[in-house]
Amino acid sequence: MGIPEKEYARGVLVQKYGEVRQKERGQRLGGRIDEILEGLGSDHKLDAVIREGTKLRWVCRILTPDGPKNIAIPLDLADDVIDSAAVQDIERLRRLLLEGLGRKDLLGSVQ
User: Fold this and answer.
1) Nearest CA-CA partner of 92 in 80, 83, 106, 102
2) Closest CA to 60 of 68, 78, 48
3) pLDDT of 94-106, one tens digit each?
4) In what order do the strands lie in the sheet with 57-64?
5) Whole-model pTM?
6) SS3 for 85?
7) Helix, strand, coil % (nearest 5) of the chain?
8) CA-CA distance, 68 to 47, in Å (whole number)?
9) pLDDT digits over 65-98, tens only?
10) 28 neighbors 82 (Cβ within 8 angstroms)
11) What does the domain layout of the chain look like in residue ranges?
């Protein structure tokens, strides 16, 4: 491929560490989403969290009584929730999820 073997191996290792790190971040984001969904009852379940880096977002798939819903979460919001877990960031995520699930009736309530 025209690059030294050590340099190639280093690149593969960096990519592997990056994938592991993103998987861990996705699991942490999923945990926060699960906490929010608990307030909606057992009929709303997180099915997947997928990072779409080229689109600068995470997409969560939530199973609902009306079928699966995909909700895009901007990377900046996800990073804030994962890294700081400040109340205002979690509230922004909660609002985004409720809007995406069509549950605007719950937007005024605080959980």
Assistant:
1) 80
2) 48
3) 999 999 999 877 7
4) 45-52, 57-64, 67-74
5) 0.82
6) coil
7) 55, 20, 20
8) 9
9) 999 999 999 999 999 999 998 999 999 999 999 9
10) yes
11) 5-102
